[in-house]
Specification:
With 126 residues, the protein is of the alpha+beta class. Helix content is 22%, strand content 42%. The chain has a 3-stranded antiparallel beta sheet, with no helix packed on it. The model has no long low-confidence stretch (mean pLDDT 81).
C-alpha cells in the first residue's frame, strides 16, 4: 500500500515536472507581446493663468500668464457673459517663470460692464 502511494507520488511529480517544462519552453519560444502604448491625449500645458479680468468695454480679456518653459505660445480664450459668447486668440513670446500681462481681443465683444462672466483658456506652444 505504501509502495503504491510512493509510486503514484513519484509518477505525479514526474508528470508535473514534464508539464511545467513544456509550458516554460513554449513561453520562451513565443515572442513577447509589445507593451501597451501610452495613452494619447493632450499633454498638460506648461503654463497657467493665475489672474484674468474682462475689460470694461467687454472687448478683451486681460490675463497674466506664467509658463515653466520659455517660448512662443498661442493663447486662446472662450468667454461668455449675459448669454453671449465670444472668443479670441493671440500668439506671444513668454519668458520662463516670468508673469506676463497679455490682452486677448474678443470677437464679438461681450456686453460692456458685465460683472458676471466665465472664461476658459487654452495655452499651447507654437
Amino acid at each position: 500500500m505504501v509502495r503504491r502511494l510512493v509510486l503514484w507520488l513519484v509518477i505525479g511529480g514526474v508528470v508535473a515536472l514534464v508539464g511545467y517544462s513544456a509550458v516554460a519552453a513554449s513561453r520562451a519560444q513565443r515572442p513577447s507581446l509589445p507593451s501597451a502604448p501610452a495613452p494619447q491625449g493632450p499633454s498638460p500645458s506648461p503654463c497657467r493663468v493665475p489672474s484674468y479680468d474682462l475689460s470694461p468695454s467687454g472687448g478683451a480679456v486681460q490675463a497674466v500668464v506664467v509658463c515653466t518653459a520659455g517660448g512662443r505660445y498661442q493663447i486662446s480664450v472662450e468667454a461668455s457673459a449675459e448669454g453671449r459668447r465670444a472668443s479670441g486668440q493671440v500668439t506671444v513670446r513668454l519668458l520662463k517663470d516670468s508673469p506676463t500681462a497679455v490682452s486677448i481681443p474678443l470677437a464679438p465683444p461681450l456686453p460692456a460692464g458685465a460683472t458676471t462672466y466665465s472664461v476658459r483658456f487654452q495655452v499651447r506652444g507654437v
